[in-house]
Amino acid sequence: MHRFKTWPVRSALSLFIAYGVPYVYQSAQAQTTQPSPAADDAAGNDGKQVLITGSRIPRASKEGPTSVTVITGEDIEKQGYRNVYDALNAQTQNTGMTQGADFGNTFTPAANTISLRGLGPNHTLILVNGRRVADYPVAYDGSVNFVNLANIPSALVDRIEILNGGASAVYGSDAIAGVVNVILKKKAEGFDLNIKAGGTQDGGGSNQRIQFTGGGSSGKLSGVFGIELSRTQPIWSRQRDFMSSASSDGTAPTRIAGRLNADSGDYIDPGAGCAQMGKLFSSSVVKTGDPYCASGKAQPSYWTTMTQNESKNLFGSLTYQLTPTTEVFSDLMLGFNSTQNNTRGPNWTSEGGGNSYFFNQNTGANESWSRRIAPEEIGGATRYNKKWDDVAGNWTVGVRGDIPATSSWKYEAAYNISAYTSKQTTPLLLANVDSFFLGPRLGYNSDGVAIYAPDPNRLYQPLTPDQFNSIAGEATTRNKSWTQTLSLSANGELFNLPAGPVRLAAVTEFGNQGFSNTPDPQINQGVFYNNSDAEGASGSRKRYALGTELNIPLLKQLVATVAGRYDDYNFAGRSDGKFTYNTGLEFRPAKTLLFRGNYATSFRAPDMNYIYSTTTRGYYSSTTDYYRCAQSGQPLAGCTYNNYSPGANYIQTGSKDLKPENSKSWSYGVVWSPTSNFDVSADFWRIQIDNLVTNLDPDIILHNEANCRAGQLDINSPTCVDALARVVRNPPNAVFQPNAIQDILVNPINAAQERTSGLDFSGKWRIKGGSVGDFVLKANYTKVLSHHYRQFAADPDQDLLNSLTNPDWGSKVNASVTWLSGPWTSTVQVTRYGSLPSADQTRRISPFALVNLSAGYQINSRASVSLIVNNVFNSVKQDNTAGWPYYPVGNYNPYGRMGWLEFNYHFGS
């Protein structure tokens, strides 16, 4: 879905200057030591003080009261993940479907995100080196703010830690479903070159990547740097046989030219018109029995199932040792990304900005003409690509060390600023397109209908690229967002108990964040065909926070953790304050056994997009009108009103009266590690969100409206009253398109509640095989036990887990086997996804598994080479129950088998 909103683009560095007022930032989690792997050794304690995501207190134990999943930089390569997003997307906690870069019709095709526990991308806090980063400047699905994972370079990733639970008492807003902390490398000696290139077996998607990293130290100064350059070519739908035609399953081909008599509802015979267009859309144009000209290749010709991308990512970090106990540090990350995709070609309907029909003076009838323009007419499908040019930056400077006159206390003071800009360029038809096909408008009749005297041959005459350029232009939208924080944190020992010292950490933060959206002024000047006025939006808010955390050894075998934090947000002339807390227990009856439990309260301040969004009018790229499909008696797969494009118009507004979300989460589990080579864990979790801030999904609204009108839902229920009020339709006796949707009214509300629960299992076993080599077996499994949603307090619960409208997975498995023998390393990675609702929402489709393989050889002490194959068995999950594109978009991809060759070389020490 697409609407046209934009903002001024500025480089990340200029944004740093413009917004670099010393405010606060989230005190990162890494202070004097680095987070460690999640699993303890056999003793449950390796004696080293480390920081774990979810706590500000360095500790010896690597397992805390809440489970933490760790993905190392080495795992990203060995398990076949293309980047940081791929690695996170494959994790079993990520059970929610998201509209990523390859989803197609979205507001954010240049971005990727995740949905831990199926609670949406805005309920997971994303950190880089323990610090917040700026949101992507365009809201996900036009509604919620989120962090883009597509531009985090993998070259310098040391590890990624995922805290599987709420943590607002430590990190503040957003940490409801969990926390993802991407930790970059802090040390390097010498230089490393990595070259990787590959593509897909079935065509398209070729990609190349070069990484150069290095570092070292000289006296009191040490540093590390990284450069990553990558390029990915698109995959077009026409390059995959099973989706190269939208009529291969017997569905009627897509109309590309037609004349409809609006008075009778019948199409007018095009005569030889379709033959004139016969070479368009790869010579696939035919005349249907309706009659009109159509092609099964109209949709695949303009659809990229993998976006095109070029990126340049840079990172640098410096540390200077002022004294033996004090150091100054700074790091800078910059990302430059250019993305292109295509979701549909130019499409015209007569008087599209009005009632979509006109009075034909030559025939004396009201008529509606329509025309899809083929790639051959515009100079190739890429001429109609949408483009995004993004710049992201993140800069931190600070000082840390020991507090004088204390034996154990350490501090960190840091300032961080992060900024993101995005420029979107969208090709659009110009307002002169009506006169191009219909000739001059001759006025209006007494009914207010435009009058034309058009030549029908004009409709069926193929265009030249020059003619197309005379009726096409571009709109440029500009978006930006930023956040900055000044923080001061400290940790140390308070006093000793018989079982050990009581440790405390404290943090105070001051910060602000903002965004702005600036539409292309041409949109409101009537330059483009069928475009509603667009309003810009902008806003900012300030925040401060004060938090503390205690680690209390009650007994040698029993440790308690207590944390509390107060956050205050000031925005839109109001102030919202929230106190959150969490408590955790770790019980170790034996060195090899850990029982753990955690209870946490969390919150989320309302998304700024929800608060500051102005009244926005636009249209969705595609819409399914379930009510009209039911009226026509057509099955969803072949329904004329299923996924039609362009879609329905919408009117969206924001609200400054939204309340913060409140969340409660519980978890308890057990970890058993009888040896350093074996550990298993099992955890139960439950999350409940009250006052959920949500912008109702138009597809859900239309689905509810159809069910209410059909009597499947109580028409007097709050849900039905709300849905029927939000869908504005033409009257049943309208001259043209009776009962068609005029507008869908959407706005954010505080829904009553959403809650979910489930189980996580994980295990690792290292087997020493002597001359055969060593084997490492890893497995993770997540099973969602329940997922319920209630929009209004008086509504019954909706069972999302078993709903045929919910595209999330109910279970997910990750398992891998790694073999190590001398210079050889090989890993087989299997990801199994649970069942999903079919596209026509009538049944569930079977689970699906993907297998990745990597094999590496260490040539000598400096050089190594690897072969990586994703989707070894070339499997593509297909679903043709609702027609083209015949696969579950967003849940799976149609790439097929992909392969890469990778070469590494180390220079220096």
TrEMBL record:
<keyword id="KW-0998">Cell outer membrane</keyword>
<keyword id="KW-0812">Transmembrane</keyword>
<dbReference type="InterPro" id="IPR012910">
    <property type="entry name" value="Plug_dom"/>
</dbReference>
<keyword id="KW-0813">Transport</keyword>
<keyword id="KW-0798">TonB box</keyword>
<keyword id="KW-0675">Receptor</keyword>
<protein>
    <submittedName>
        <fullName>TonB dependent receptor family protein</fullName>
    </submittedName>
</protein>
<keyword id="KW-0472">Membrane</keyword>
<dbReference type="InterPro" id="IPR037066">
    <property type="entry name" value="Plug_dom_sf"/>
</dbReference>
<comment type="similarity">
    <text>Belongs to the TonB-dependent receptor family.</text>
</comment>
<keyword id="KW-1134">Transmembrane beta strand</keyword>
<feature type="domain" description="TonB-dependent receptor plug">
    <location>
        <begin position="62"/>
        <end position="179"/>
    </location>
</feature>
<dbReference type="InterPro" id="IPR039426">
    <property type="entry name" value="TonB-dep_rcpt-like"/>
</dbReference>
<feature type="signal peptide">
    <location>
        <begin position="1"/>
        <end position="30"/>
    </location>
</feature>
<dbReference type="Pfam" id="PF00593">
    <property type="entry name" value="TonB_dep_Rec_b-barrel"/>
</dbReference>
<dbReference type="InterPro" id="IPR036942">
    <property type="entry name" value="Beta-barrel_TonB_sf"/>
</dbReference>
<dbReference type="InterPro" id="IPR000531">
    <property type="entry name" value="Beta-barrel_TonB"/>
</dbReference>
<keyword id="KW-0732">Signal</keyword>
<feature type="domain" description="TonB-dependent receptor-like beta-barrel">
    <location>
        <begin position="352"/>
        <end position="872"/>
    </location>
</feature>
<dbReference type="Pfam" id="PF07715">
    <property type="entry name" value="Plug"/>
</dbReference>
